[in-house]
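Section handout 9: paired folding examples.
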Amino acid sequence: MSPGRHAAGPEAATEEEPVEWEEGARPCAVGDPGRAASTVVTEWDARFLFRNDFLVDGVRLPAVESPVADLRAACVRGLKNRYYGKVCQDEYGFLVSPDRRWLVIAVADGVAQGTHSHIAAQIVVRSGCRALSALLGQDDPSRIDWTALLHRLADEVVRYAQAELGLGDRVDVAGTLATTALFAVVGLTPDEDGFLPAYVMPFGDSSAWVLRPDDERPWIALQPVKNEGSVIASSATDAIPLVPHELPAAVKTSIAPGEALVLMTDGVGDALGAGSGEVGQFLAASWREPPEALTFASQANFARRTYDDDRTVVAVWPVRRS
C-alpha cells in the first residue's frame, strides 16, 4: 500500500540478466513494463506460513430464481514484496447471504509499514463478510450502520494484537497491524431492466468503480480519485484500527448488464489513476466481459514500470438476459 516507487527496490536491480519466462508466464505489459517484471526473483517470507502469492476465483453467482452475476477475483503479491521476501498484505473475500438475495464483497490492503498488517486485512475481510451477511438477514443494506461495523472490526484487530502479539493501546496496535477496508453489498434480484443495486463503503485508499461500455469514459469512480489534482502524490491513508466516530454514508449505485462493479486495492488503483491512461484503456478493454479466471488474474498482474505493490481486484458483471 504505497505509490510503488522505490529507488532502492526491485526496479533498481537492473544489472541482472532478465529471467527466461516460460511460454504463457509473461505478465501483460502495459506501456513500459520496466525490467523488474523479468528480473525479480521471488523470495519466500519464512516468518508467515500459508500465505499465497496468487489467489484466484471465478464463479457464477446463484440467486433465488436463476444465476444473475459473474464474479472474478484475484490477489497477487507485488514485485516489491517478492523482491524483499515479504508476504502479500492484501486480502479479499465474498459471501452470498443465506437467502441468496445479497452478495457481500470485502477487499483490504494492509499498511506496508506494519509487520503484521496482512493479519489485520484477513480479520477485516473474514469477519466483515460474516458480519454483513448476518446483518443482511435482519435489515436492508440502506440501514446498515457502517460506523458501528468498522468499529467492531477495529476492536477485533486490537484484541488479536493484544492477545497474540502483546501490543498495547490502539495507537500502538496501528503501528503493527493496520489495513484499509472496502465493502460492497450487491443485490442479486435484478429489476425489470436487469440492473443490480449496489452499496459501497470505502475506508482508506482502496477504490470502487463502475466499468461501462464507453470508449471515451469507461471508468466511473465511486469515491474521490486518489491524488487527483495533487502536485505531490501521497501514500497516507485512513486505516483500521483507527476509525473516526462518524463515517460518510455508503455510496448507492446500480450495475447494468454490460457494466461491471470493480473493487481494487491501490496496487491497481494507483496505476489506473482516473482511468483515462494506458492502464485504464487496457483493463477496460480486457474486462468488457468476464474473462476466464486465470486470464483475469494475469491481467490484474500487468507489468508497468514503477508499479510494484500487491494487487487485488474483485469484479462483478450482471448476467445478460437472452
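Moving on to protein 2 of 2.
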Amino acid sequence: MQTYGGISVVNAIPSWYGSSMAINLKVNVEITKGEYKGDSKLIKTILDFMKAKYSIGPLDVKVYSEVPQQSGLKSSSAVSTALLGEIKRKFDLDIDVPKLSAILSIMAGVSYTGALDDAVAAFYGGVSFTYNKEFKIIDKRNPPEDVSILLIPIGNRPKVKIEELKKYNLIFKEIFHLALRDIITAMKYNGILVSEILGYDKKPLEEISKRKEALAYGISGNGPSIFALCKKGEEGPIYEILSKYGKVILVSGVNLEGDNR
C-alpha cells in the first residue's frame, strides 16, 4: 500500500482542529508472514492490536519511505495508514484506516492528538480538515492547483513544546476556519506562528517573505522542516534562498482521487 507524506495547513495541537495537505513524498509498506524485528513502537502497536483484535499475525513489515522521520512531514501517519491499509486489503477487513491510525498513534505515544488530519491526507490525498478530539473528518478537498512546494526536509525534531502551542488555541482555531475559505493564506499564518512559538530559526522565512513568488511558507507540523509554496514556474528565487540553508527538494501537492478513495 502506498501513502504520502504531507505539510501542515493548520497544526492540530493547539485547538484539536487540524488540516494537512498530501505531498508527493511516497511511503510504501509490504507485509509478509514472519516476525517483525524492527524497533518502531508504532508498527509494534499496530501489529499487537491486529493480532489481539483480528487474530492476524505474526507479520513482518518492510517500510520504504521518502519521508524523513521526526521532521514535521507526516512520516508516522504515512507509515501507519500504509500498514493498516495493506492489512485491510490483504485480509479483507472492514476498518476505517485513518481513524484507526489516529487511535493507535495515541496508544503508541507517537502523537498527542492522533494526527487524524495527517492520516486522512496521507491515505486519501488532497487536503484534510478534521477535529481530532472526536476523530471527526470535517472535509476532504482537492489541493490548490498549479502550485509547487519547495522543502528543506530536516529530521530529528527536538521535543515539542505542547503546552506552549496550546496557549494559542483560539488563534489556531481561527486559522482553521480561515483554511476552510483560503487554504494558502491559512497555511502561511500557521507556518509562521509555529516557527515563532517553537523558536525555530526565522532567517529563511524572513528572506522568503520578501519575495512575491512565495504564496505561503513556514514550518510544517512541529518542525523542523521548512516549506515554501509558489506558483509553478516561479520556483527559482525561492529555491535560491532555501538552498543557502540546506538541501532543497521540489515536490507538488497531490490528489489521489480513485486510489484509496
